[in-house]
Amino acid sequence: MIRPAVPSDVPALVRSRLAQQLELYSVGDLDPDDRRRLEERLSGYFARACVDDDALFLVDEEGSAIAAVCGFSIEHQPSQIGDNGVYAYVCDAYTAPGFRRQGRMGRLGRAGAAEMRKRGVSALYFDSISESMIRLCQGLGFERRHDYYSLIF
Questions:
Q1: CB 11 within 8 Å of CB 69
Q2: Residues 6 or more apart from 7 whose CB is under 8 A from it?
Q3: For residue 46, pLDDT beyond 70
Q4: What distance, in Å, lies between the first and last C-alpha atoms of the chain?
Q5: Angle formed at CA 118 by CA 115 and CA 123, multiple of 5 degrees
Q6: DSSP 3-state assignment of 3?
Q7: Do 88 and 116 touch, CB atoms closer than 8 A?
Q8: What is the pLDDT of residues 62-104, one digit of tens each?
Q9: DSSP 31-92
Q10: What pLDDT score was predicted for residue 150?
């Protein structure tokens, strides 16, 4: 079931972000003190994001587990020719290993894009070193622009 993240999801969001970072950067395990400090910073970030009108974290829940998460952070810039200057950065996209290759991130991406349109966002963008994320977003219509990918509504 796809739904917006709520404050009680913060611990699961922190675990998801840590798992994503450890996979992407292959750093092994973190020093316990470094891990604790990072978890504290991430807890504050996700707690604020769950109640911020300019953020949306969608979770795909399977039973009592969060199988996948995808965030959207709205930015307000000066208007430009052809758009209103309201963009959303796609962030913190992660699917837990046992739930991969089931279309979850695609569903989260489409649901998030639809909600961002409702909120007046004129384009989504992301940058990633994850080849699977790049392929997924290209399948959703994102196009490479300079050093990032975007989906213009």
A1: no
A2: 47, 50, 51
A3: yes
A4: 26
A5: 80
A6: strand
A7: yes
A8: 998 999 999 999 999 888 877 888 999 888 889 999 999 999 9
A9: PHHHHHHHHHHHHHHHHHHTT-TTEEEEEEEETTEEEEEEEEEEEE---BTTB-SEEEEEEE
A10: 66
